[in-house]
Amino acid sequence: MTKFSDKDILLEIKDLRIQGYSDETWVDIIKGVDLTLHRGEVMGLIGESGAGKSTIGAAAMGYARDGTRICEGSSIEFDGMELTTATESERRALRGSRIAYVAQSAAASFNPAHRIIDQHTEAPVHYRIKKRLEAQEDAMELYERLRLPNPQEIGFRYPHQVSGGQLQRAMTAMAMSCRPDLIIFDEPTTALDVTTQIEVLAAIRDIVDQFNTAAIYITHDLAVVAQMADTIKVLLKGEEVEQASTEEMLDNPQEDYTKSLWAVRSFKRKQKSRPTDGTEPLISVQNVHAAYTGGVKVLDDVSFDIYPGMTVAVVGESGSGKSTTARVITGLLPPMEGQVLFKGEPLPPKYTDRTRDQLRQAQMIYQMADTALNPKVKIHEIIGRPAQFYSGLKGTALKQRVDELLDLIELEPSQYYNRYPPELSGGQKQRIGIARALAAEPEFIICDEVTSALDQLVAEGILRLLDRLQRELGLAYMFITHDLATVRSIADEVVVMQNGKVVEQGPKDEMFRPPHHPYTDLLLSSVPEMDPNWLTELLEERGLDNIGEAATSKGDAAPST
Amino acid sequence: MSVFVIGYYAALIAASCLAAYFNYRRTFMLLFSLTLVSFVLGIIGGTPALRVVTIFAGALALAVGTSYAFKEFLVQIARPNLAKELRTAPLTASFGMFVIFTYAIAGIFAPVIAPHGEAEVIASAFAPPDANMLLGADQLGRDVFSRIIYGARNTVGLALTATILAFLMGALAGLLAAVKGGWFDQIMGRAADVIMSVPSLIFALLMLSIFGTSLVVIVIVVAVIYSPRVFRLTRAVAGNIVVMDYIEAAKLRGEGDWYLIRREILPNSMSPLIAEFGLEFCFVFLLIAGLSFLGLGIQPPTADWGSMVRENATLISFGDITPLIPAAAIALLTVAVNFVVDWMLFRSSGLKEH
Asked: What's the CA gap between B253 and B261, in Å, rounded?
């Protein structure tokens, strides 16, 4: 707080109330939030989904999304200008030139039909700040500062021709194009891999420093916000929980809710080791090679075993073949070579050739509960169908089984029996997905990034539930994830994949102890830690040119120290 | 200056002042511009022109009032879920529903409502309207009003049957093509292309001249012509659904195609299909009316709006509007169905009003 004097206030929000329209009434979303941001200050807004982080971010631009309205009595003062009473054209004149916005998914926010640099120069040309050619030169300079490869040329590509991390940096460059006073970052790295996330974080931090830009950084990842922000504001259900400088907040959180957020990653279960009495592995993937029709090889000689009652975490960044391995095991993608054994018996490569019992044994839980549950089917039918299909249950027996399953996933049966998936929250939907898998009474469940779409508190609840179910029912899990914190808390064994190959595998305690395979090392060191100096130290250690994608490509050749 | 003219302007100006006072900007602009236009209109057309304006405004107000009341009525009698949806419906949609409802009543109770039989000759040819015949007689001396009522049953019934058949064929083929994929998809797709490549009216004329003009043939021919459109839409909608994880989960469970279609895909593709049904119904209806106009549709003496236009077409040169009445009946139904479809499309597209 001492870093900024009161004279330099850029944005002052007082008693912000925002209402959303649902079920024919206006409901409060934001219930009186105050926010003061100085020039050059970076404020982190954190909270779980539905806490109103993004809504406040949009309100800082004087914008209320469709179906929401800013209530009377709220005040949003940007550099002496009251945005709630300003006309639409006055507000529009601010956006892009003095306040910029970086969205979560750059891939979805860029227009795929125009080149990146044309979209970049649109704002400066529109506001007559620069001529087109000047703006292009400036863009190239910004690209260079953001350490994009080949800055002279990259802007002339179309959005789909550059990678996700590069696109996110290009979007940050675009936000800087008019040298705004304030940038709002709305979860800019949530959709990226850990290795890519670092370069974006480093780039954003540098450029915000260089131009003394104020920023509001919205995220639900505490470790990320610790690297970026000067002050942190914690939100819960549209209300402020507390606000403090980053160091203070990390060392000494005041409120119980904040403490619970900090403690989330503490969940850890005891590691089990493989049975030594000669039990056959439940699932054994043997030398599997696979490719999608006509494409390049996605899996290259993948082998690993999963023993009964154990959790095997498969980690790697996107495109490493984690989910493809799952598709091979379930039979959705028949392998070109190799086989999958179930209790020593080879499984037919295509799921259509498998018997009902073989299908029943391997169930899946999906990443996006929204697409994994049919929105037009009631909960009891979603859960009841596998029980009916495999065990032939009917009438009261079926209802009893559904109630039992709902109890198992800690949802009150009478309350959820007749509801539809869209009426549930993300965590509840994921629980229904788990119940559907359990209804088949399997011995083996594939969990495909089950917690990555959830908030940390909710994710922890799901992990605890999965752990309890494993203990009670003796299930084996194949846990696909890119989040190493999840691996730490739940896995027994770890399989690290890169470019379709298994680069390293073994029990968890060995995997987290050096020496590592260089790629494992890169993955491990890229996970943000709660220490505010972590990013600075990491960058010093690796050097500026050796982060993110550059490091990944070097991972094979250069052994790390 | 008659009392009517004075009252006319007084009412308009009073209404404009009230709108301005209560800050209804758009209502005020509308009313006051109407006042200004009426000055010009009154000078040029005199009192009759102003009377026409009044009648139009009255008819519009009547339609709005009826739609509003009908909507409230539907909200009252519908189940809670449906009532919530209906409450958000615009007035145009409830107007559409009211018109469709009226046509349905006319069609179902035609023999009770119509004063005479559809083929009954009761007067001389082209007899003018009198107390017995509301809209006069046609070229053979049959009551035009009765024939219009019966036409609602014949033309609309036929179009509805043909549309339903087209939907059954097209939707089933589309869903199967999306689920099965591969060669089945290819064969169905190419077959649909072939049918769509022939202009529909010419194709219908050809088929009807080969197979005769019995009702069954008309229904089948029209259904075959329109099913490829339904096929394409259904396949596209279902294609977006079969890639979802819940379909994958069901497939991995070992569910058959029929279960996938019935329980997983169909509930999620209903709203675009229903909207398309309304739209297709209009096209089918117009095609059947067109075929009747050309003499290949419903055969005389059965009353049909398309052939009624043709039979009385000569009257138009005498300034008589009789042939326009069945045409107006066709137009009104088409517009009404489109109003309802618009609302459904709006709903299924997930757009929200600001």
From this structure: 15
